[in-house]
Amino acid sequence: MNPIYQYDVHLPVNLEQGKTYPTIFTLHGKGSNEQNMFGLVAPLAQDFIIIGIRGNLPLGAGYQYYELKSLGNPIREMFDQAVKDLEAFIHYATEKYPIDPDKRYLLGFSQGAILSMTLALTMGEQLKGIVALNGYIPEFVKTEYSLRSVKDVSIFVSHGEYDSVFPVRIGSETSAYLKDQTERITFKLYPTDHGVSEENQLDFLKWLKKDAESNINKE
C-alpha cells in the first residue's frame, strides 16, 4: 500500500531488534505541517516512535486534512474521507515499523485535535490514548458516526482560556461529552490563546510517559 499521506518518522536512536515501541502519531493544525508538531514531542523521541502525518491538501505555505464550509463546519465528505484515510495510515505504519499496536497514541492540535478525538471514537481501544489540544468534536460525529467504546482509551484534552478560534466553552463542552464516555480523561485549561504553552507541553509529555508505562488489561 502506498500511503495517501507524506510523513516523517523518528525512530528511537537505540532501536532494539525484535522490540516494539509505543508510538505517537502527530496531526497538525490547518495551514501547518508535520515538522511544526515534532518539537512538541521531541523530548520523548528516545522512548517512542514519532510519526508526523502531513495533511494531503496544500493550504498557503502549509497543509490541511480537510476543507471547511465555515469555521467549525467541515465539508462532510472531505472530513469523512480524512478519518478513513488516517485510520488506514495508522494500520499501514503499524505493519511497516516496529510499533506496539497496544500503545498507539494520537496527538493533535486544532484540526489535528478534532481528527484525533474523532478517531478515538471510531477506533476505540485500537488506540491506547490521545492528546487533543484546542479542538472539538463535530456534532455529526457524535450523532451519525458508528462509535466504539473509549472507556479504556486514555484521553488528555486541553484548551486555551483565551482561545480566539474555538472559545473556551467549546473545550468544556468537549470535556463533558468525553467524561460521559470514559473515566480515563484529563482536562486542563491554560491561560493562552489558540496555541500550546510550555506548561501545557510539559503536562502532556509527563502524561504520555506515565500512560505508556501503565499496562491496562484490554479484553
UniProtKB/TrEMBL annotation:
<dbReference type="InterPro" id="IPR003140">
    <property type="entry name" value="PLipase/COase/thioEstase"/>
</dbReference>
<comment type="similarity">
    <text>Belongs to the AB hydrolase superfamily. AB hydrolase 2 family.</text>
</comment>
<protein>
    <submittedName>
        <fullName>Esterase</fullName>
    </submittedName>
</protein>
<feature type="domain" description="Phospholipase/carboxylesterase/thioesterase">
    <location>
        <begin position="17"/>
        <end position="204"/>
    </location>
</feature>
<keyword id="KW-0378">Hydrolase</keyword>
<dbReference type="Pfam" id="PF02230">
    <property type="entry name" value="Abhydrolase_2"/>
</dbReference>
<dbReference type="InterPro" id="IPR029058">
    <property type="entry name" value="AB_hydrolase_fold"/>
</dbReference>
<dbReference type="InterPro" id="IPR050565">
    <property type="entry name" value="LYPA1-2/EST-like"/>
</dbReference>
